Amino acid sequence: MGAKWVLMIMVVSSLISANVDAKKDKVCDKGWECKGSIYCCNQTISDLFQTYQFENLFAKRNSPVAHAVGFWDYRSFILASSDFQHLGFGTTGGKLMQMREVAAFLGHVGSKTSCGYGVATGGPLAWGLCYNREMSPSQSYCNPDYLYPCAPGAEYYGRGAIPVYWNFNYGAIGDGLKVDLLNHPEYLEQNATIAFQAAIWRWMTPIKKKQPSAHDVFVGNWKPTKNDTLAKRVPGFGATMNLLYGEMVCGQGEIDPMNNIISHYLYYLDLMGVGREQAGPHEVLGCGEQEAFNPNTAAATS
Ligand SMILES: *[C@@H]1O[C@H](CO)[C@@H](O)[C@H](O)[C@H]1NC(C)=O
Ligand SMILES: *[C@@H]1O[C@H](CO)[C@@H](O)[C@H](O)[C@H]1NC(C)=O
Ligand SMILES: *[C@@H]1O[C@H](CO)[C@@H](O)[C@H](O)[C@H]1NC(C)=O
């Protein structure tokens, strides 16, 4: 019996190593934009999403009444995304899913940085990337924190493409990006590449261990547990809002803050030529019925 088992183990282990080798073979190198991962074998974001599309989506950002004129540009977004494409950002699941993910991520960005209201020219959805910071902060968002104590004089009001608030969030994102945001929160309103990197990092990173990221729930990397199903959390765009904003946006029925984010996503799908009908049914688009993944905690952003 001994010999038989040894043989079987050898066969199994050689199958495993053959499988690993097959995976290794698929790793691709597309230079600065995507390197050293299976995801890089697919098209990269700049193949699918080009300058003119960025200009269409954020058509009003440099109009004289906007609040971050000259700050945001396509190049910064592509540079920032180059750090995350090898992890699957905008490179997962084939062209349609890739474009949907870019639209979904930018839908959050557009909604959170918009200064468009009902009367705005071009319509309220044309004003994404109007801001790069909170205009009249009512406080400095400093909370005693052992890991990420506030730097003297620093203010941690909302800044960036998906605004970051609070010292502990600046600290955690700074660690993730290897940029000292705790001591230099102002980087997020001075450098659009860093501002986009911070937002993509948040999109790609679970808030807690064992939780999915917004990316995971969107591209289908996540299988809901029984608890998730009981809490009405299903894979899709709605769950991205749940992870990014929790109870502020989700579990409250059809509220404006939720519908505004969805509207930006759908508008961008149309402008990118994908079409809003590719967004899927309203049950997966919204999170009005979902319980928060992280109840009663300040969600990582806003
Ligand atoms: C690459 O795209 C194909 C379809 O075009 C898709 O089936 C596959 O999952 C993608 N690969 C990765 C690693 O996402
Ligand atoms: C903005 O940040 C990026 C990434 O850290 C860096 O490469 C670039 O030099 C910065 N740009 C400016 C003008 O400081
Ligand atoms: C499911 O929820 C219950 C009650 O909140 C909790 O005790 C349990 O640990 C959860 N299970 C998982 C797998 O998260």
From TrEMBL:
<keyword id="KW-1015">Disulfide bond</keyword>
<keyword id="KW-0378">Hydrolase</keyword>
<dbReference type="InterPro" id="IPR023346">
    <property type="entry name" value="Lysozyme-like_dom_sf"/>
</dbReference>
<keyword id="KW-0732">Signal</keyword>
<feature type="signal peptide">
    <location>
        <begin position="1"/>
        <end position="22"/>
    </location>
</feature>
<dbReference type="InterPro" id="IPR016283">
    <property type="entry name" value="Glyco_hydro_19"/>
</dbReference>
<dbReference type="GO" id="GO:0005975">
    <property type="term" value="P:carbohydrate metabolic process"/>
</dbReference>
<protein>
    <submittedName>
        <fullName>Glycoside hydrolase</fullName>
    </submittedName>
</protein>
<feature type="domain" description="Glycoside hydrolase family 19 catalytic">
    <location>
        <begin position="52"/>
        <end position="277"/>
    </location>
</feature>
<dbReference type="GO" id="GO:0004568">
    <property type="term" value="F:chitinase activity"/>
</dbReference>
<feature type="disulfide bond">
    <location>
        <begin position="142"/>
        <end position="150"/>
    </location>
</feature>
<feature type="disulfide bond">
    <location>
        <begin position="250"/>
        <end position="287"/>
    </location>
</feature>
<dbReference type="InterPro" id="IPR000726">
    <property type="entry name" value="Glyco_hydro_19_cat"/>
</dbReference>
<dbReference type="GO" id="GO:0006032">
    <property type="term" value="P:chitin catabolic process"/>
</dbReference>
<dbReference type="Pfam" id="PF00182">
    <property type="entry name" value="Glyco_hydro_19"/>
</dbReference>
<dbReference type="GO" id="GO:0016998">
    <property type="term" value="P:cell wall macromolecule catabolic process"/>
</dbReference>
